[in-house]
Amino acid sequence: MRQHKTLKVYLLGCVDFDSLLTLQERALQEIHFQQDESAILFVCEHPPIVTVGREGSHYQLSGAYHDLKAKQIEVRWTNRGGGALLHAPGQLAVYPLFPLKQLGIGISEFRDRLQRATRSAAGEQGVDCETCPDDSGILGRCGQFAFLGAAIKSWISYYGLYINVSPDMKLQRLIDANRFDHRVTSLSATLTREASMGSVRESMIRNLAQQFGYPDPHIFTRHPLLHRVKKKVYVDT
């Protein structure tokens, strides 16, 4: 029987992007130091911000600079995979930090397991879906509602995936969120009813735990490094 195979899941609510980056860096160090199969999963939403991954370009933002500036939405270039994405409340951000070497999982298999977990979670909501041909996310009948944006450091995964559950779609469509002409949509738009963030969150956690072999994840509703000030979340450094 394998020892020390634990998954800590942190349900963080709405967390500003910089704080989440700091938490990821701390978690990467923790997992690297442990050298076992222990893993960490951050699940949250973000205040409005645009991030651009390694495959992103200025072209994806070319029609939105004025609107983004008017709405005071920052643009951040990051080391994750994928292109430009607009994060906002109603979009579920999922950050799995898994020790791939200890789990015996390669990069392609890691991506496939993320996609299978997302497809299973969407199916539980009643959404038939398929993997994007370019491996960038998940498509339903109305378009793309999930986006992969993972990265690997020292064979530990970080960043992850983003699921449009019920965000403001007018805000989402300020930018060209993909480079392959997939229409951007949400689970709520696909279902023509409000999708439950809590239900999608629970389903994603359960399916990810199953896909990566963590039978008994430990759930936490706060993180000791986070504290709330005036309804915003900051991280102690």
From TrEMBL:
Biochemical pathway: Protein modification; protein lipoylation via endogenous pathway; protein N(6)-(lipoyl)lysine from octanoyl-[acyl-carrier-protein]: step 1/2
Task: Cite the InterPro entries for this sequence.
Answer: aa-tRNA-synth_II/BPL/LPL, BPL_LPL_catalytic, Octanoyltransferase
Q: Which Pfam families match?
A: LplA-B_cat
Q: Which SUPFAM superfamilies match?
A: Class II aaRS and biotin synthetases (SSF55681)
Q: Which reaction does it catalyse?
A: octanoyl-[ACP] + L-lysyl-[protein] = N(6)-octanoyl-L-lysyl-[protein] + holo-[ACP] + H(+)
Enzyme class, UniProt record, top EC level: transferase
* One MF annotation (Gene Ontology) recorded for this entry: lipoyl(octanoyl) transferase activity
> Would you identify the family this protein belongs to, as annotated?
Belongs to the LipB family.
Write down what this protein is called.
Answer: Octanoyltransferase
Task: Look up and give the organism this protein is from.
Answer: Gimesia chilikensis
